[in-house]
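retry 2 of 3: previous attempt timed out while embedding magnesium ion. Reduced batch size to 1 and resubmitted. Inputs unchanged:
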Amino acid sequence: MLKVLKFGGSSMADASQLAKVKSIVTAEESRRVVVVSAAGKRYSGDHKITDLLYLCHAHLRYGVSCDGVWQMIVERYTSIRDELGLKTDLESEFAALREKMDAGISQDELVSRGEYFAARLMADYLGYTFVDSARWLHFKLDGTVDQESSYEELRRLAEGQQVVIPGFYGTMPDGSIKTFSRGGSDITGALAAAALDADVYENWTDVSGFLMADPRIVKDPEPIERITYSELRELSYIGAQVLHEGTIFPVREKNIPLNIRNTNQPDHPGTMIRERFDEAEMTDDRFITGIAGKKNFSVITITKTGMSGRRGTLRQILEILEKYGVNVEYIPSGIDSVSLVVASEKAAPCLYQVLGELQKTICPDAIHVTEDMAIVAAVGRKMAYKPGSSGKIFATLGENHINIRMITQGPEELNIIVGVDNKDFENAIRVLYNSFIKGKEQTI
Ligand code: ADP
Ligand code: ASP
Ligand code: MG
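retry 2 succeeded.
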């Protein structure tokens, strides 16, 4: 039995958190591979080491002294080491890094050091071997991971050993360091689990699993006990940012269960994520597994009589959006109209050009743009089998005076997505949570 564990920033924030990690790791002999993030916040208002490293690099770029920020980074890791009574030689590492910084270091290399130092300390503390991700996690020129060579290399370096691996980074074909996007240590953990054919990938964070709604919006939401990879993807994509979006692919490919756990409550079973669950395992009868959403979408609605009967119109519309690099999230459509839901941030810089081209190419009867829309998704694998689920959702929002601006449902009937005004976003999530999760939708 092999378990790969990934500990996030809050689990690495200070010496007392590292002590919790050690007791979790040593509690089971199978916990032999540990992936760590850089030290995160110790309390609200504190700084994440990764943020400080980005800030350092910004100072360097503008030729401003970064001494103050650098000192905060040095002190954080030095105090962890000293409080744990470790002998890790951080001083010479820091000195060498400062020299590199003065000579001109890439942003990715500098920010990757947050994970590097954290992993060095954790390896010493656990008595495990440190395996640098620069040695095994290889990116291809297009920025994707070269799974084959990475897996092979990690197997060579780690098979049969107890190891600590820094998350978040790897190397490009020219040997330079490249990081994933923010939160990417989750992916490193998933790749390590897949490479080593782990029996489970445990992702340890600061909440007791994937919660049914964002805890910043709903007070004390319940954790989801079991969720499928598909449901998780839907929820993560639409805004439930517990795991990095790229985490699922490597473990799903190898059918490795993913277990989200809480470092501060290690006895809680957390959330188990698998491809599917047997009927016998499905103890609750909720038709919604979770609720998530995002704000700030724009909806471009194009109206033209007989549009759906005309061949190629949708393609032409999408080509224009593609040309300007605007991703279309949803496409609700009618006989004479089609709406394109796009992230306002992406569309704003080129909106007028896009509208101009649509006008010229499609010659519509009208084009209309609605701004400040939020998307809320109710996700659940059982939704497809429960007649009336969508009607109940719409009715509940209506009864609570939330105006629905758009409705769409994925073809797999795994989700129901509604568009509401930005100002109604939090309320819509609370209303759905209170009616269907807390109240367990008794009336359906
Ligand atoms: P880590 O540093 O361990 O990777 P993150 O901060 O990236 O942790 O992710 C965990 C955080 O995600 C939680 O502390 C919580 O605030 C936030 N979060 C947002 N939506 C959800 C959700 N649906 N379930 C659980 N956590 C959520
Ligand atoms: N430390 C990195 C970040 O803050 C990666 C991670 O924590 O997963 O984004
Ligand atoms: Mg994270």
